[in-house]
């Protein structure tokens, strides 16, 4: 990729993969959807996170993200909107009514092996896009990280920025999707355990407590974003 002035592509990919494995709203959201609704839902969420990342890449190449980074007011508004969205997602999980859990299907609703209904694909994808787009730290990350791998003398710096951003987003989608698949497999394994009385009680408790715990985590991420300095 020398004609674009891209430097150390291998190092960029390796660093990007490590960064993609760092826990954050995108990984939490993808794992949550996969654990509750199966691997397919996890991949839908991963694609939504990737789509949001492409929005940041495009805005960065156009200079819009740089404008946000230098404007305290614009950054503050986007930060608060993103924080509010994360808190809203958390509140929905915290306030959701418990599904009925009986002796024969503890932790079966929703079942990780069940296919995600088509009507759920849209909301899962939409929420994932918003989780990514409304996080100003993603925009600042692209502005701070990607240019380090572009030659200052590059004849097409914007194109190089887009190319590197697309590589990062593609790798990130694969990583988050894979983590979602592992989460779905772990959830399915738990649900397939022998249905003795003690296990049913534990499974019922986990089925009720896990969404609340994840909701609290989303609220914590939102508050951290709201209070974060630039």
In terms of DSSP E residues, the strand content is under 5%
Total of helices = 9
Radius of gyration: 20 Å
What are the secondary-structure elements, in order, as H or E? HHHHHHHHH
- Biggest sheet, in brief? none
Q: How many E strands? A: 0
Number of domains: 1
- Low-pLDDT stretches are 99-119
Mean pLDDT: 77
Structural class label: mainly alpha
Coarse shape: globular
State the helicity in percent bands.
over 70%
What distance separates the N and C termini?
A: 32 Å
Please describe the topology of this protein:
Blueprint: H1 9-20, H2 25-37, H3 39-62, H4 64-70, H5 72-95, H6 118-133, H7 136-145, H8 157-191, H9 197-227
Explain what you see.
Helix 3 (39-62) crosses helix 7, helix 4 (64-70) crosses helix 5 (72-95) and helix 5 (72-95) runs antiparallel to helix 9 (197-227). This protein is mainly α. It has one domain. It has 9 helices and no strands. The protein is 75% helix and 0% strand. The two termini are 32 Å apart.
Question: Key terms for this structure?
Answer:
230 residues, mainly alpha, 9 helices, globular, 75% helix
Write a short abstract of this structure.
The chain is mostly helical. The chain is 75% helix and 0% strand.
């Amino acid at each position: 990729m020398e004609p674009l002035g891209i430097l150390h592509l291998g190092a960029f990919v390796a660093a990007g993969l490590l960064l993609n494995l760092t826990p954050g709203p995108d990984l939490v959201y993808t794992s949550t959807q996969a654990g509750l609704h199966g691997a397919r839902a996890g991949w839908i969420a991963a694609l939504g996170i990737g789509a949001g990342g492409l929005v940041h890449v495009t805005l960065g190449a156009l200079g819009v993200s740089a404008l946000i980074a230098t404007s305290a007011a614009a950054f503050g508004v986007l930060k608060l909107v993103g924080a509010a969205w994360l808190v809203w997602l958390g509140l929905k999980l915290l306030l959701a009514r418990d599904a009925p859990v009986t002796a024969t299907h503890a932790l079966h609703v929703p079942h990780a092996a069940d296919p995600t209904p088509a009507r759920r694909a849209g909301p899962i994808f939409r929420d994932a896009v918003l989780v990514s787009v409304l996080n100003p730290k993603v925009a600042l990350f692209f502005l701070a990280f990607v240019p380090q791998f572009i030659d200052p003398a590059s004849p097409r710096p914007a194109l190089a920025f887009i190319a590197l951003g697309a590589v990062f987003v593609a790798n990130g989608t694969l990583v988050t999707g894979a983590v979602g698949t592992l989460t779905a497999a772990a959830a399915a394994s738990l649900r397939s355990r022998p249905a003795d009385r003690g296990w049913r009680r534990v499974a019922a408790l986990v089925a009720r407590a896990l969404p609340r715990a994840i909701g609290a985590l989303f609220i914590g991420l939102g508050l951290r974003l709201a209070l974060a300095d630039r």
